[in-house]
Amino acid sequence: MTITVPDTLSAMRATLRAPAADRRDLLGSMLEPSRPMYRYAPGEVDLVDLHLRSAGFPLDRDEETCLEALDTLAGADALGRMRRALDDGLAALTAATPDLEVPDITVLFVLGDPGDAVFMGPSLGVTGFGGISGSIVITLWPFPENVARLEVTAVHELHHNVRYAPGGVVWDPMTVAVGEHVVGEGLADAFARELYGDGLGHSRIGVPHLRDDAVFAKVVSGLGVTGMENFTSWVLGDTIAENIGGTPVGLPTGAGYAAGNRLVDAYLAETGLTAAQAVHADSGKVIATALDRLGLPWSG
């Protein structure tokens, strides 16, 4: 298999420097490799509209700010660092599970929107989506903390992509529960920490509540909730959920990540596995094992 990381920095720079009338087509061409990610969506997805609605860099404002951000990323060798991290992450996964089935993966690295208050604020300037086999999209603003974590962000999404690849865990939209999402985030963070240490490996969004027992208990109470429309509130928290029309459940930003780390750490400690070895671990078993180790009830 191969991991492809196109030169989106050059493509974005060319898009932002082009006449306004040409920018949409140029951006569409850059985003086209991500189309397989939306193969389950009803009808054909307008990739440019989706980009603009998902905190991707704008086409009609903030050009100089965005160009300066691209210069920062180029100076940090962002694409090279991510390519090397993905190769290292893949090597770790295949070493842990020699018969692992891994698809060819295309990773699109996209600059975020400096004018999006939720993206730049509660989301800390970074979002990633790697849950559809074969495609990863990372949207990022080069805050220093995010530049320092480029490798971590890449391998976190790689773990998701391999977890949900053919032969791995099946994400059935009709039956999947919050617990699967929470465990998936915890495993991806644990994998990143195995490669890069606890100081960088935790997703920033979950760090403030890693040791918050009340938040942990609240997330655990919702692990059995189904319906993907509910996941944003339980995993990302009320503020981000409300921004996209979701219903709040009383959780702070990043709650599901924090709880996922605690569950997965308990599971790995109990079983002696690594996150690389546990890439296909059943989320129900992870939760039951973790809560039993922590002395907490679980109804399944």
Q: How much helical structure, as a percent, in the residues?
A: 40-55%
How many domain modules? 2
Supply Rg: 19 Å
Spatial strand sequence of the major β-sheet: 1-2-4-3
Pfam families: DUF2268
InterPro entries: DUF2268
Domain DUF2268: 101-287
Topology:
Blueprint: E1 3-4, H1 8-17, H2 20-31, H3 47-53, H4 63-75, H5 78-96, E2 105-111, H6 117-120, E3 126-129, E4 135-140, H7 144-148, H8 150-163, H9 178-196, H10 198-201, H11 213-221, H12 231-235, H13 238-243, H14 255-271, H15 283-294
Parallel strand pairs: 1-2, 2-4
Antiparallel strand pairs: 3-4
Helix pairs in contact: 1-2, 1-4, 5-8, 8-9, 9-14, 9-15, 11-14, 14-15
Write a structural description.
With 300 residues, this protein is α/β, with parallel strands linked by helices. The protein has 2 domains: 1-168, no CATH class; 172-300, no CATH class. Helices cover 52% and strands 6% of the residues. It is built from 15 helices and 4 strands. It has helices at residues 8-17, 20-31, 47-53, 63-75, 78-96, 117-120, 144-148, 150-163, 178-196, 198-201, 213-221, 231-235, 238-243, 255-271, 283-294, and strands at residues 3-4, 105-111, 126-129, 135-140. Strands 1-2-4-3 form a 4-stranded mixed β-sheet. A hairpin with a 5-residue loop joins strand 3 and strand 4. Helix 5 crosses helix 8 (150-163) and helix 14 (255-271) crosses helix 15. The longest helix has 19 residues, at 78-96. The model has no long low-confidence stretch (mean pLDDT 95). Residues 101-287 form the DUF2268 domain.
